[in-house]
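Hi support team,

I submitted a single chain yesterday and got back a structure, but I'm not sure I'm reading the token output correctly. Could someone confirm the output below corresponds to the sequence I sent? I've pasted both exactly as they appear in my results page.

Thanks,
R.
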Amino acid sequence: MRIERIPGWPTPGQPGIAWLGQAGFWIETGAARLLIDPYLSDSLARKYAGKAHDHRRMMPPPVLPDALPRPDLVLITHAHTDHMDPDTLAPLAARFPDLPFVVPASRMELARDRIGGAARLVCVDAGDDLAPLPGLRLRVLPAAHETRDTDARGRHLFLGYALTWAGRTIYHSGDCVPFDGLTGLVRAIRPDIALLPVNGRDATRRAAGIPGNFTLDEAITLARDAKAGFLIPHHFGMFAFNTCDPATIDRAGANTRDLAILRPAIGEALRITQNGRTGHGADTDNGG
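Hi R., thanks for writing in. Yes, this is the structure output for that exact sequence:
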């Protein structure tokens, strides 16, 4: 497999990935268009205006919700607003009433409130394995946003998704930290590409009610141990109090030989070409 950087949006009909900021991605499989955890508004800046952590964006949204093309499927990993954003998702549901939204079953009522009462929800939990679109396999994994939380019925609050089509698998962990058994679960899905957060965590953020994620080193370790060929880091560059230095990601990419680390950038796409499993020593164009 080869991944190369191209300017702009992924070409329809050609497999590729575009980062939308934070944990948001647009994925073209070649047959379907997938949208994961889009945060394309300033809803959190309005909510936290004047607070210590004011949630002002460090980057503008690459596209506004009303201008977003129609995806075939929207996937939401959990209910934090930078992942389940009403100001992004409700306009999408209003524009495309038949659009399906995959959401945690544990947060179904909140999802309906934020996305819309008539929204077409596909409620899932860790362990589910389904085919939401022709040729697309979706496997649902647990995630731990510092802790592995469940509701009163034992359904997970935080999820990750493995998306498989045409022999390729992309794993999006959602917001997550290492936990017992995670590496085995991820290795079992045989990801070609791992989309993992790298903003880390610490006591100061935890005390402020800001749960954390993998550090960059932890994300590299998980991707390597799961035998992914590519790591695409995310969850940086959005909020000043909860980010990772892009230069640190670039240095890791330059110094890592058994895993291709590709820092995504707004305004460019990562085009996926060639068939077959990735494995170590994957062919890649790291770009600029």
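A quick pointer for reading it: Residues 2-276 form a domain with the Metallo-beta-lactamase; Chain A fold (CATH 3.60.15.10). Let us know if anything else looks off.

Best,
Support desk
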